[in-house]
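To the wet lab folks,

You asked to see what we're planning to order before we commit. Fair enough. Below is the target structure as tokens, and below that is the sequence we designed to fit it. If anything looks off to you, flag it before the synthesis order goes out.
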């Protein structure tokens, strides 16, 4: 056993709702960054961040795409902000069967914020870089961990979603056809 303490890097995008003006620049920058090829198109449906808006009450909440879950939650809480009621789903970052938010519009595969990690690595995610009002800020630090956390990649999540939707036989058949092609 090693005496060295293992550390992992923690990355976080902090949201200050008092500063968000609802400009949606974060959505546009995210969708452009994740376009194939990069910056070739802008489609907010492909963005990993969405701004929930109530224009009459000036309430704007940027929400980043989180993990995919096969089951919808049982929580049906409502929140009242400035006299308007919002459902719990309005502020949820999870991609789930209950709604189409945070799904790739063409394939239906779930989207998840990847902090714009790419090669070369950005100093901070695109949404933070374009947020001129300072509502989104980036923080990074190290923390001690007992054991290594294994993250599922986009490919594993996508394949799991396809298997759930179409069945493993159809996915295997499609992969076989692709490998021949």
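Sequence we intend to order:
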């Amino acid at each position: 056993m090693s005496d060295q303490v293992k550390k992992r890097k923690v990355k976080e995008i902090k949201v200050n709702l008092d500063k968000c003006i609802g400009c949606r620049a974060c959505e546009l920058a995210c969708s452009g960054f994740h376009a194939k090829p990069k910056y070739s198109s802008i489609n907010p449906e492909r963005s990993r961040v969405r701004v929930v808006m109530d224009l009459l009450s000036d309430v704007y909440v940027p929400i980043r795409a989180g993990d995919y879950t096969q089951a919808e939650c049982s929580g049906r809480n409502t929140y009242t902000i400035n006299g308007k009621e919002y459902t719990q789903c309005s502020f949820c970052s999870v991609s789930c069967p209950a709604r189409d938010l945070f799904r790739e519009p063409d394939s239906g595969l779930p989207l998840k914020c990847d902090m714009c990690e790419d090669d070369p690595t950005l100093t901070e995610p695109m949404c933070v870089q374009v947020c001129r009002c300072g509502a989104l800020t980036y923080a990074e630090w190290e923390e001690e961990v007992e054991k290594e956390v294994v993250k599922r990649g986009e490919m594993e999540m996508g394949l799991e979603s396809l298997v759930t939707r179409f069945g493993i036989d159809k996915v295997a058949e499609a992969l076989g056809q692709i490998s021949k092609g």
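Structural context that might help your review: The mean pLDDT is 84. The chain has four helices and six strands.

Thanks,
Computational group
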